[in-house]
Known about the structure:
Elements: H1 16-19, H2 22-33, H3 44-52, H4 56-69, E1 87-91, E2 96-103, E3 106-109, E4 120-124, H5 126-133, H6 139-144, E5 149-152, H7 154-166, H8 169-180
Parallel strand pairs: 1-4
Antiparallel strand pairs: 1-2, 2-3, 4-5
Amino acid sequence: MPALPPLPSLPRPPMLAELLPGSLRQRMTEQLSGLRIPAFTVPAPVAKLVSRLPQQPPTRLLTLALNLALDRILPRDTLAPLSGRHLQMRVLDAGLTLDFSLAEKGFHRFTSDQPQKPDLVISATTRDFIALALREEDPDTLFFSRRLRMEGDTDLGLLVKNTLDAVDWDALKTRLSGRRS
């Protein structure tokens, strides 16, 4: 079967900030940069419902996000000890349990014929995971305040934490903003 020709690249739509006049954009950026995620928890009835739903769709979203970051901001060679290991992320207030693993082609949903205890379980609330992702909270602060828990292979937990700490988030922001200009 002959190879298909590459699809033409589409122009990138302008970002909302690019459509605003300079002074308004600057004021909005200044105001938004000071915002913090408010303290919240997912309501118990919602968590009860979510815990009964299939966990595959949110797990696929997590692995997609991790694969987008892999090799861009998460160095694959550093994460090599995670290969083939059963990792689990528990979003405590939302009733989510996401099982995943790292393979040669990237992160994927963990599946097994036999029930298996995860090698590493990372637990926190929705708010705390979002704060970690946005770098509003430091993993050490959350860990020592018992808002982030790691169970299982502590070496894997330290590897994950140290990898996240080693990411140069400011350089990444600069690189991403440079692409948009």
